[in-house]
UniProtKB/TrEMBL annotation:
Coiled coil segments of this chain: none
Assigned protein family: Belongs to the CutC family.
Pfam families (UniProt xref): CutC
Superkingdom of origin organism: Bacteria
Protein name: Copper homeostasis protein cutC homolog
Amino acid sequence: MSKRAVLEVIALDVEDAVAARAGGADRLELVADMAADGLTPAAATVEKIRAAVDLPVRVMVRLADGFAAGDVERLVRAAREMRAAGAQEFVLGFLDADGCVDLAAVERVVGELDGCRWTFHRAIDRAADRDALRKRLDGLPGLDTYLTAGAAEGVDAGLPTLLAEAGRRGEPGYGPQLLVGGGLRLEHVPQLLAAGIDGFHIGGAARPRGWDGPVSAEAVAAWRDALDG
């Protein structure tokens, strides 16, 4: 029997989390402020969502728009606060001014996570060299996922890269799961599944009324059905 594909849904609050769970989501990415493409949420939100649903929740560690780390000590304190609120999985990713991974910042935050599983997010789609980024991060404790569209412009532009990277699974730097998100549409799903990609991430696609409206359980269920065939 084939492995069930992971469906991760962006949640902003408890209402989103409950709807995503009802629709068949496997995991949540918890963020605040989507106008800034997702920042670290309030600790109280983490606590409420963990009490409301039994899904794994990956919590964003990001304090400002863009992919620069900024004040690393503030990031470390944010990670510490999220852990104290019950967070057990995380999302992060930082680049330097040259588009290379900011390894010092990543390692500093990951050190605070103490082995928790985490996703390197779409900063990879802005990297000067994706392959070099993957190889520099290879072996970091807890890194099990790359959230990527394959290109900064989204899945339409990044599809060839996604398919190529799926074909490199098992090579150094290519062990973590590919979690595809960023302009992802249902029509992309068959080709991605056929390539062996088994991680899918949706945000706006789960919200028929846009980011001003909540996650729709029905919209999530349509994705669940598409992934399950």
